[in-house]
Amino acid sequence: MLNSAGFRVELKNQELGSFIQDWRNSNFQAFASTNAGSPDPDDTSIARFRTGGSTNVFKYTNPELDALLDRARTTVDAAQRRQMYNQAQNILACQGPIAHLAYAQLFTALRSNVQGFEVVANRSLWYLRQNAGDAVTSTRH
After folding, report:
1. What is the b/e burial string over 25-41, where b = at least 16 CB atoms within 10 angstroms of the residue's CB?
2. Minimal CA–CA distance to 64: which of 87, 48, 45, 44?
3. CA 13, 28, 6 angle in degrees (round to 5)?
4. How many helices (H) and strands (E) does the chain have?
5. How much is the pTM?
6. In this model, does residue 79 exceed pLDDT 50?
7. 75 has a pLDDT exceeding 50
8. What distance in Å separates the CA atoms of residue 89 and residue 96, rounded to the nearest whole number?
9. Where are the alpha helices (H) located in 29-131, listed in sequence order?
């Protein structure tokens, strides 16, 4: 449909390792992916959208956003932080390098005897790496 509308589009469904390599090297014009964030907006915002951020693969730079994120990460008052991250979100929604097209709802069902598995609201599985020594277990009843 995009080609019919005058856009020249080639869709690539890449193997995950190739996708990550291209993503890390900013070797794309556009991409679609599912990424989890963190309950603390600082974790994602600084890395993805601050000038020079570790995963700012968009090469996005905005001095106003940088200053706002720097202030927000050093502010301990929760209401002030919330207000700053709301401002940052507005900047990114209007001027940022990405468009959030969809948000999938995650449904997880666990038997009552499964221990060591956490359901995280942002769909992240970060705790699996953090708690690699602890096994997810199931006890038989």
Report:
1. eeeeeeeeeeeeeeeeb
2. 87
3. 80
4. 5, 2
5. 0.68
6. yes
7. yes
8. 9
9. 41-49, 63-74, 78-95, 126-130
